[in-house]
Amino acid sequence: MPESEQRPNTGTTPLTGEAAARAVNLHKQYGAGDTGVTALKSVNVEFVRNEFTAIMGPSGSGKSTLMHCMAGLDSATSGQAFIGDTDLSTLKDREMTNLRRDRLGFIFQSFNLVPTLTARENITLPTDIAGRKVDAAWFDSITDRLGLSQRLTHRPAELSGGQQQRVACARALVSRPEIIFGDEPTGNLDSNSSREVLNILRTAVDEDNQTVVIVTHDAKAASYADRVIFLADGEIVNELRDPEINTILDTMAGIERKN
Prior knowledge:
With 259 residues, the protein is of the alpha/beta class. Helix content is 34%, strand content 25%. The chain is built from 8 helices and 10 strands. InterPro entries: AAA+_ATPase, ABC_transporter-like_ATP-bd, ABC_transpr_LolD-like, MacB-like_ATP-bd, P-loop_NTPase.
């Protein structure tokens, strides 16, 4: 069956491989009564280990809310979000903070670097806060691969936007997290820098056995993924595997016509 003719997928179809993260009947409501807004409608989805998944959908579809709830950056109204076997709804504030620091990596549209710290200090900051020792060989491997070896003493203001996002990628990778979440990680970058960051994430999956989940509005960015899931009105309405740009664009166009 051609990809463009694939049946909508509600996210409940079992996937091969172990889930790095999953949502079970995940529901998110903002406000109450007539002014209430439902951002997620009992979503069920799994993100398989060692895969790159992109989340897409029209503005207001719930894609960022889904990622934020899955990553413990926001709490669900009901349902469950799991990282591995850990149910996030059972964690206290300190436990949630420790989980985000110790088991997850984050890359955002805004680079979230500390302006007074050097690139090296920004990369090692979460590991330093955790009181753990940085694996020097792994640090050197990551920063060399990302082209940062000659920029480690520079502060963010002395780096280009692409270099700053590479620092953010290195920070996410250096602790070897269970899963890396990216919220529009190429949103503030030019095409060359975007391609660099996406190649970094693709390599993290292919060579380092990482798991990557990003929210994006960019079909080109989504085409780097193994799988794309599409949201509309808080629900998963379609899914593509091994996606191509044209198929992604056609799928998005179909969703937008229905909305």
